[in-house]
Amino acid sequence: MPVPRNAGVTFGGGIARASRPLGDAQPESAMKRNASAVWQGGLQDGKGSISTDSGVLKDTQYSFSTRFENGVGTNPEELIAAAHAGCFSMALSAELGKAGIKPERVATTATVTLDKADGGFAITAVHLDVAARIPGGDQGAFDAAAASAKAGCPVSKVLNATITLDAKLES
Question: Residue 154 domain-assigned?
């Protein structure tokens, strides 16, 4: 039975939380992460850079050619794919943990599809390929955890796209 995309997974525990200013309406458990982008020039001849507060990305180059051709650099869709793969791997580990299962390894590849439709571009699909190494793992429990993780991963919830999954249990 398919799990609705909006089914929730709650993450808690060891997440560091920043203090919030007085009068901020967000719950104390809310996290905020920052990234920035600067674009210079026109769409096809311009160039940009992306940075994150953590410093993992610092003035990382992106351009029309890195997005729509095979140029050197990154692009927003690649970053979404990385975020989705990372989020899903953690969500699957959390779901398996709820079932009393601790995986040795969870490896996920996310493939983001950017299509032109209705006069513009949209991310229309994400496909997740995951392989989890769980010695003596139970296929039914694994499949249920993978479906819950797909629906409940916070990145899955933010995407307005069809999300598909191929999950392989390695024992």
Answer: yes
